[in-house]
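Late entry, evening session. Most of the bench is empty. Finally got around to the prediction I had been postponing all week. Sequence below, unchanged from the version circulated by S.P.
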Amino acid sequence: MKQYAWLRILLAGFLLYMAFPSLHAHSVGLAHLFWFSWLVLFTLVVGGNLAIILKINYQPERSIMAEKVPQRMKN
């Protein structure tokens, strides 16, 4: 799975590299908002794939008391 994550990061970077020269041509109005939304999407794609590569997995802490099973006492 790490190979696919790296490929997605490289693809997103390549697409940003290809679109970057047109950033200065569209610096006002609705085109600027469109560019900003693509930059946000790029950030989310890279962040999500880096989380896969670095194996960042959030698991909430379980209570220690919930894991303990009461044992019967021996007579």
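Two things to note before I forget:
The radius of gyration is 23 Å.
The CA atoms of residues 20 and 35 lie 9 Å apart.
Will write this up properly tomorrow.
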